[in-house]
Amino acid sequence: MKQLAKTKVTVRLRKAEDRNEWYVYIESYPVEISGKKTPQRIREYLNRSITTVEWDKKRTARTDAAGSKSYKPKRNDNGIIICRSESDREIMLYADGVRKIRQKDYDNINLYSDAENLMAEQKEKGKEDFIKYLSAVAAKRHVRSSKSIQFTWERAGEFLKNYSKGTLMFSQIDNRMAEDFKLFLLGAPLGGGKKGILSHNTAARYFSIFKAALKQAFIDGYLTVDLSSKIKGIPDQESRREYMTIKELNALAETPCEKDVLKRAALFSALTGLRHSDIQKLRWKEISLEDGMVKLHFTQKKTRGVEYMPISRQAFQLCGEPRLSGQLVFEDLPDPSWISRPLKKWVVSAGIKKNITFHCFRHTFATLQLSSGTDIYTVSKMLGHTNVKTTQIYAKVVDEKKNKASEAIQLVSLKKKE
Predict the structure, then answer these.
(1) The CATH number of 246-406 is which of 1.10.760.10, 1.10.443.10, 1.20.1250.20, 1.10.8.60?
(2) C-alpha distances in Å from residue 227, one per residue of 154, 206, 230, 231, 269
């Protein structure tokens, strides 16, 4: 719908041809009229005339062919034409009263038209595909984020597409649809040829992305209501964080691995707490020796936070012989998708029966640090967590170990009385 220009209503004068008198009329411009291609100028004569107008000699209205000038009338601070006689002043007050009424009428028309335009615009936006919008938000928001974050947003879009059978218009989104999608995620199959359903926490992560996109859609004007604030997310369930003991780590260190770089990187993670993504991109220029202490200076791939971290001599030993500053420390370290088979084979060879992934070495670092007495805030900083609450899950694991340890010493004589 075409946006209307604001109509302005003005009191004007027209000179009578045969006498020193001016007719009073109301002019409205621009006015949109159905069937007319251009805006119209509407004149409404009030059947009133005046003779004592005061003219502003500094403001020329027009100059005719003979060079005779006409001037614009003087107006007071309220825009009312100034006259010398009392009767003419009353006519001007009357004319201004009519002007105000007409201006209000046109303002109401403009307001109604603006509302129509907004409704039409909202209707057009309602026809757009929310799934494509989510993809665009992900590309803009996470252009520099890690591949894992980008992949998670992509997967959230795929599950939304599966739920909606292809497309999801903005006009179809409401509280009921959001709750329905939540239930869908909690029972959605994994897809990609894999058996089983999404884990509870993965479903929660995908639904939080859906809510984030809804929030942005409200900010961008695609939704008139902030649905994200009205919809409850899926609460996370505490998952078991598998870790290894010192004894198990030593067993791994003494067991050969078919990929030496994998072995060194995994043990390096256990000694530093670094993620696979940060180890994979670590370069020699990010390692320095200062005052006898080996330090890392790098940017976390996941959070984009700049980190400073001291590491042990043993961790530095796992890096191998120093090379050029721009070279990777753990060159040829496979991506996570290519690690599981050789990693599992290595773990089994070491006699460890736990289900160990590469990320478990990071869990091991956190758990062993807390078990050895390192305070949770220091461990949180060493892990690069932005919130200490994320680190508290490891503290619960340590508490479980303490609970078991409290029952480790049993006195036979007291046991008989139980």
Answers:
(1) 1.10.443.10
(2) 21, 16, 5, 6, 41
Give pLDDT, residue 409.
59
Q: Which of 165, 196, 198 shows the shortest CA–CA distance to 183?
A: 198
* CA-wise closest residue to 15 among 71, 65, 66: 71
The model's confidence at residue 180, banded by pLDDT at 50, 70 and 90, is very high
Separation CA 272–CA 312 (nearest Å): 8
Q: Are 391 and 380 in contact (CB under 8 A)?
A: yes
CB 72 within 8 A of CB 60: yes
Q: What percent of the chain has pLDDT over 90?
A: 42
- Distance between CA atoms of residues 14 and 70, nearest Å: 11
DSSP 8-state assignment for residue 17: S
For residue 188, CA distances in Å to 131, 150, 183, 295 come to 18, 21, 8, 45
Please give the single-letter amino acid code of residue 219. I
Bond preceding residue 30 cis, omega within 30 of 0? yes
Q: Please give the C-alpha separations between residue 112 and each of 115, 182, 195, 275, in angstroms, as whole numbers.
A: 5, 39, 56, 58
d(CA 83, CA 73): 9
CA dist., res. 275 & res. 302, Å (int): 9
In the block, tokens 């370069």 appear at 283
Query: Model pTM?
Result: 0.48
Tokens found for residue 382: 């060493």
pLDDT at site 64: 64
**Domain residue spans in the chain?**
8-124, 130-230, 246-406
46 forms beta bridges with none
**Residue (of 105, 92, 86, 107) closest to 46 by Cα position:** 92
Residue 260, token pair as written in the block = 């030496």
